[in-house]
Amino acid sequence: MNRERAIIDIGSNTVRLVIFGGPRRAPTMLHNEKVTARLGKGVAEDGLLSDKAMAAALKALGRYAKLLELRGVNDVQTVATAAVRDAANGGEFLEKVRETGLSPRLLSGEEEALTSAAGIVGAFPGAKGVVADLGGGSLELVHVAGPGCERGASLPFGTLWLPQLRADGPDKFARRVRKALVATEWQCTEGEALYLVGGSHRALARLAIRQSQWPLGDPHGFELASEAVQQVCRSALHGGVPAAMQGVSASRLAALPNTAALLSVLLREIRPSSVVFSAWGLREGLLYQSLEQAEQARDPLLEGIGAFVESHGCARETGAMIAQWIAQVPPAVDERAGKLRLAATMLILAAQQIEPNLRVGHALDWALHKRWIGLDESGRAMIAASVAGHSGSSELPTELYRLASQDDLCTAFIWGLAIRLCRRFSALSPVVLAGSTLRADQGKLSLALDPSLAALVNEGTEKDLRNLAESLELQPCIEIKSSEAMLVG
Fold first, then answer.
1. What is the pLDDT of residues 184-203, one digit of tens each?
2. In terms of C-beta density within 10 A (0-12 exposed, 13-18 middle, 19 or more buried), how is residue 197 classed?
């Protein structure tokens, strides 16, 4: 049975097909293509989808339908948004879409907003604040609080409309946006964030990453204080947009001042504590909404990393056993720390399945640059610090100190040392893991083991235990159960 899922998004600028695979709670993108049909351009001009735009869209949709048929993908959702919704001939266009064999669903403005917000809830469990999804035809706003979404609204400030809205000057533009926001009562409460969705917002994130020389390149999950984003907006409005930028099309670059002008007003009116950029939005929201409640409750980071390490020949259960074996050095202070320790353990074990000369570099890349859902910048740095500790390195990559606190990095580095001890001592044998324990107590770090396992202790075990104990400022000790303890000098 083909478990792939497809989303076809008929938007105001583009018509896109994305095929997803992987775990349902943390889907991975297998195929992604788009056609810039500009359906919304005609709507902005005369209220109609133009013949040229419809022809381009229908040609793309015919290809998508055939690709999905040949690939055997049966789980397909096709949705249309603002341009088709607002066009006088939108119904006629949807009839032609049905002739391709697809079953399009026209989303209302509120449905579009709530679906984009569902993508944020799926990507950032526990998210609280306002979601702003900027598309070609409209700006969708919705408030999120934990698993719930509420008060969805669609405002006519899509990127296709912004040039003419700004034509009368910045003051009139700001007043118009402000009036719409006040009428719908959009504002963050203390401590809430503004979550930005859409390609134009991600282009602005890439500009911020470039200007700050941020060590991470993925805009998903990139978080900045509101004033820092305002500074980027001011830069974009006053000639700070480069002629070319990796990962951003020429058309997106040209539109950055318009995006910045709108966002600048949003920040002043909504007043979030911070701004979070997201690659998840409408399409991922559709997938998240299709999950059962129990599936939605699963942790996306552990689901994603678990599937990834299994694809590298490493059982996630092995990672769980090792994470439990090292659980007391030091104990996790909260659920997040325990989750990150398990994630680091699984990635380190997966790296052992590849060429030795590539292991450390690949594991660091996986931690810092692979897109993981449910992992923030600090968490990435902590996993990378564990990789460094496991490698035997005495120093951390300097860029990690921009991402996480020194205390968190030190803790994660110790996890890496503990994983190294466990992996090398046990050779990942369940029997060895069951017959031995690692604990810190009364000034000692003790490796206690069954007498039948005593032959496994060698110079490498003693060295790894000693290095770990020194990092914890404890005395290393090996205890053969039912016999006297042996100090490791």
1. 777 778 889 999 999 999 99
2. buried
